[in-house]
C-alpha cells in the first residue's frame, strides 16, 4: 500500500498564504474528492503536492510512503508514483503523444526493464480504444490543437498508460459535455484497484455521479472543514455551500455570480 500524507500544510503564493493547515491522507485503493468554493486552495494543494516552484510550502509536510516530497524535484515525484491531470494541460510542439507517454513510462523503470516499442504500441492501442480515441491522436503533437474535451481525455490516457500509484485529478470535468464526461469517468473507474489511489478536485456533484468517491472533503478558507462519504457531495448539491457554512459557523458569504459558490472573507 502506498500512502500520500499531508500534515498541517501551509502554502503561500507570491507571499500570500493560501493553504492554512491542510491535513489529508490518501492510500492506494481509495478515491477521494475535494470540493469547495473558488479561491479556497484546491488547485493550490494539487500544485504543492507536485512541487510547482511558485507554490511555497511555509510549514507542514507532504510525504509519500514516509519520504519527504520537499526534497524531491517534480520529475522525481512523478517517478515515485505521483501523477497530476491538470485543469489546463499545456500544448507542446515537436513531441507526439506517443513519444511523450513512452518516455514517461520508461523514466519510471530501470534500464533493464524498459517497455519495448511493440508492447507500448499494443498497450496504447488498447487503452486508446477504451477511451474512444482515434489512432491519429497518438501521432499528434502533445495537446496541440486539441479541444478541451480531447485534452482531458488525453490526460486520462496518459494516466492509464503510466499507471501511477496516486493520481491528482484537477477539475477533469471542467468544460466537458456529458458524453466526454462519461468517457473520462470510464477511464478513471477502470483504474480502480488496490494499487491505485485518486484525489479528485471538483466544484460539482455531477462528476461524482460517475466516479463515486470513498471520501469527500470540503475545503473553505484554505483548510479542510468537513469530511464525509459521497452523500456529503449530494447534500452540497442540494444546499450549496451556504448550508455547510451555517452549520459550521464559518465567516463566508455568497458571491453574486453564483449562488452555489462561496468565497472566504476575512473581517479584520
From TrEMBL:
<dbReference type="GO" id="GO:0005524">
    <property type="term" value="F:ATP binding"/>
</dbReference>
<dbReference type="Pfam" id="PF00005">
    <property type="entry name" value="ABC_tran"/>
</dbReference>
<keyword id="KW-0547">Nucleotide-binding</keyword>
<dbReference type="GO" id="GO:0016887">
    <property type="term" value="F:ATP hydrolysis activity"/>
</dbReference>
<keyword id="KW-0067">ATP-binding</keyword>
<protein>
    <submittedName>
        <fullName>ABC-type transport system involved in Fe-S cluster assembly, ATPase component</fullName>
    </submittedName>
</protein>
<dbReference type="InterPro" id="IPR010230">
    <property type="entry name" value="FeS-cluster_ATPase_SufC"/>
</dbReference>
<feature type="domain" description="ABC transporter">
    <location>
        <begin position="4"/>
        <end position="246"/>
    </location>
</feature>
<dbReference type="InterPro" id="IPR027417">
    <property type="entry name" value="P-loop_NTPase"/>
</dbReference>
<dbReference type="InterPro" id="IPR003439">
    <property type="entry name" value="ABC_transporter-like_ATP-bd"/>
</dbReference>
<dbReference type="InterPro" id="IPR017871">
    <property type="entry name" value="ABC_transporter-like_CS"/>
</dbReference>
<dbReference type="InterPro" id="IPR003593">
    <property type="entry name" value="AAA+_ATPase"/>
</dbReference>
<comment type="similarity">
    <text>Belongs to the ABC transporter superfamily. Ycf16 family.</text>
</comment>
Amino acid at each position: 500500500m502506498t500512502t500520500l500524507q499531508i500534515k498541517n500544510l501551509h502554502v503561500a503564493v507570491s507571499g500570500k498564504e493560501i493553504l492554512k493547515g491542510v491535513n489529508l491522507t490518501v492510500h492506494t485503493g481509495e478515491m477521494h474528492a475535494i470540493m469547495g468554493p473558488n479561491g479556497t486552495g484546491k488547485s493550490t494543494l494539487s500544485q504543492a503536492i507536485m512541487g510547482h516552484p511558485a507554490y511555497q510550502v511555509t510549514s507542514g509536510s507532504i510525504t509519500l510512503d514516509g519520504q519527504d516530497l520537499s526534497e524531491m524535484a517534480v520529475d522525481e515525484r512523478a517517478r515515485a508514483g505521483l501523477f497530476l491531470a491538470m485543469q489546463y494541460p499545456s500544448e507542446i510542439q515537436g513531441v507526439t503523444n506517443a513519444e511523450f507517454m513512452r518516455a514517461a513510462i520508461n523514466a519510471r523503470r530501470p534500464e533493464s526493464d524498459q517497455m519495448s516499442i511493440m508492447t507500448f504500441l499494443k498497450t496504447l492501442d488498447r487503452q486508446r480504444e477504451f477511451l474512444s480515441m482515434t489512432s491519429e491522436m497518438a501521432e499528434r503533437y502533445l495537446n496541440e490543437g486539441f479541444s478541451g474535451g480531447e485534452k482531458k481525455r488525453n490526460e486520462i490516457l496518459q494516466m492509464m498508460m503510466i499507471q501511477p500509484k496516486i493520481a491528482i485529478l484537477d477539475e477533469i470535468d471542467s468544460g466537458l459535455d456529458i458524453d466526454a464526461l462519461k468517457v473520462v469517468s470510464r477511464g478513471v473507474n477502470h483504474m480502480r484497484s488496490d494499487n491505485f489511489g485518486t484525489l479528485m478536485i471538483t466544484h460539482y456533484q455531477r462528476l461524482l455521479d460517475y466516479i463515486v468517491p470513498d471520501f469527500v472533503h470540503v475545503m473553505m478558507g484554505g483548510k479542510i472543514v468537513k469530511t464525509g462519504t459521497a452523500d456529503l457531495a449530494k447534500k452540497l448539491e442540494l444546499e450549496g455551500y451556504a448550508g455547510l457554512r451555517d452549520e459550521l459557523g464559518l465567516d463566508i458569504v455568497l458571491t453574486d455570480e453564483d449562488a452555489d459558490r462561496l468565497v472566504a472573507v476575512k473581517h479584520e
